[in-house]
Structure formats: structure tokens, C-alpha cells
Design goal:
Layout lengths: L2 H15 L2 H4 L16 H17 L6 E5 L4 E13 L2 E12 L2 E11 L5 E6 L2
Antiparallel strand pairs: 1-2, 2-3, 3-4, 4-5
């Protein structure tokens, strides 16, 4: 997943798991989202962990990341794998923490023919 796709995926993930009341104020919900506090290193560690989990981990096997310098951390857990529209899709739980905030969501991620992972609709 390219960096723009990754950022878009997390933006969508944050919207999906933020309370509806915070969405009414444009992007004000970001103040309560861990991703708003991610450093460049956090993004890099998250992205590396996401790719590794999606491409290598068995269903149910979590991959963890932890940036000791920022205090941010998270897990990526592929929950199940299936084929859809000619693509390999994995329902995946994402957990991220930063600055004392935590967000968890389960999403459908599908691998396109070009090898890029794209985000489907949230499943929770």
C-alpha cells in the first residue's frame, strides 16, 4: 500500500471508529485519534507491520509494532482470508495507540492484481 493509500485507509478507519458526534465538526475527530499523533517513524513501523501481517501471517496471528521513542504502538491481526472478485481479501483487526489514545477496528483489505492492498468497507 503506498503512503497516500495508507493515510487514506487510516483516515477512513478513524472516521469509522470515531463517535458520530465528533464527525459533525469536520476533522475535529482527529484530536481523539491515535493517528493524529503518529510520527514519521510510527507510520513507517505501522506500514511495515501491516505489509508483513497481510503478506505472511496466518489467520489469527498478530504482528506487533512499538516505537519506544514516541510511545506509539499497535497490532495487525489478519482474522480470515477469502477470495473476492479475483482478489485475495483479508478481514483484519487494526489496533493503534499514541499519546494515551487507542483505536481498534476491523477492516476488509484486498490485494489487487498489481500487488497493492486496498481497503474495503469497515466490517464493524
Amino acid at each position: 500500500m503506498s503512503r497516500p493509500k495508507l493515510i487514506t485507509a487510516f483516515f477512513l478507519a478513524s472516521v469509522a471508529i470515531s463517535p458520530a458526534s465528533t464527525r459533525a465538526f469536520n476533522t475535529s475527530f482527529l484530536r481523539d485519534a491515535p493517528l493524529a499523533y503518529f510520527t514519521e517513524k510510527d507510520w513507517s513501523m505501522f506500514k511495515d507491520t501491516l505489509y508483513k501481517a497481510l503478506n505472511e501471517n496466518a489467520d489469527g496471528a498478530a504482528a506487533h509494532w512499538n516505537n519506544a521513542s514516541s510511545g506509539s504502538s499497535g497490532e495487525v491481526t489478519p482474522l480470515n482470508t477469502r477470495e473476492a472478485n479475483g482478489m485475495t481479501c483479508r478481514e483484519t483487526r487494526l489496533v493503534n495507540r499514541a499519546q494515551g489514545l487507542s483505536a481498534t477496528g476491523t477492516y476488509l483489505l484486498c490485494k489487487a492484481g498489481d500487488g497493492e492492498w486496498t481497503m474495503g468497507e469497515p466490517t464493524n
